[in-house]
Amino acid sequence: MQSNTTCSDEETYQVRKLEITDKNKGFMELLHDEFQKICDSVSNDEFQKRFEELKSYGDDHVIGVIEDVASSKIVATGSVFIEKKFVRNCGKVGHIEDVVVDSSARGLQLGKKVVGFLADHARLTGCYKVILDCSADNKAFYEKCGFKEKEVQMVKFKLYDIFSHNFVGLKITHVQLQISLIIILLNALIITRFVI
Ligand SMILES: CC(C)(COP(=O)(O)OP(=O)(O)OC[C@H]1O[C@@H](n2cnc3c(N)ncnc32)[C@H](O)[C@@H]1OP(=O)(O)O)[C@@H](O)C(=O)NCCC(=O)NCCS
């Protein structure tokens, strides 16, 4: 739906859709640096498969990126997917997710630009609203992007992710979590044998 745009006179930063070559421009590292607890390493094959899958959804699922043209590095990203409803006369809602700006490039209005790109995409595809979830710390940022607080987020994780989510503050990875669960199970088995 959107054409690629350049967001400064100096053409320093290019705002555009994700391209397959962005894996070699630090796209996964950007996600990993911010979401290390929930972003494991992704092989080239896995990346290509997921990229092709998302591409097949066309305008219904778009990942936006900002490239620092001088260094060919991806410094910001975010995604939007379009939910198609029956209510509101078969209305559409845009859902923004996974917004992140490289720690070295924060404060340069890049977060605002990537969110603007995603919100514009939702508007151009006919969405009557765009929504997102965020932490209390980021509320002021999204207000600067034109959003306002409304209603309450509810969530239900799979059992495995309940543990992983609750340990997020301790930065426990999935592998560490699996090892911990195995140790707990082994201990339980040993205790059971002694008791019996
Ligand atoms: C939140 C984040 C995306 C902001 O990106 P950024 O490029 O630094 O933000 P911008 O420079 O575009 O800021 C736009 C405005 O919001 C303000 N702002 C940015 N982060 C803010 C925060 N946490 N609290 C209050 N205001 C904030 C800026 O001061 C700026 O104000 P101005 O327009 O009056 O100058 C970035 O800090 C980040 O990647 N954080 C870690 C990942 C994360 O939390 N993502 C959000 C997931 S919901």
Automatic annotation (TrEMBL):
Keywords: Acyltransferase, Endoplasmic reticulum, Membrane, Transferase, Transmembrane, Transmembrane helix. Pathway: Nucleotide-sugar biosynthesis; UDP-N-acetyl-alpha-D-glucosamine biosynthesis; N-acetyl-alpha-D-glucosamine 1-phosphate from alpha-D-glucosamine 6-phosphate (route I): step 1/2. It is a peripheral membrane protein. InterPro entries: Acyl_CoA_acyltransferase, GNAT_dom, GNPNAT1-like. CDD domains: NAT_SF. GO terms for biological process: N-acetylglucosamine metabolic process; UDP-N-acetylglucosamine biosynthetic process. It holds the Pfam family Acetyltransf_1. GO terms for cellular component: endoplasmic reticulum membrane. Residues 13-173 form the N-acetyltransferase domain. It is an enzyme of class 2 (transferase). It catalyses: D-glucosamine 6-phosphate + acetyl-CoA = N-acetyl-D-glucosamine 6-phosphate + CoA + H(+). Its EC number is 2.3.1.4. It comes from the Eukaryota. Gene3D superfamilies: 3.40.630.30. The chain crosses the membrane at residues 175-195. Homodimer. This is Glucosamine 6-phosphate N-acetyltransferase. The lineage of its organism: Eukaryota, Viridiplantae, Streptophyta, Embryophyta, Tracheophyta.
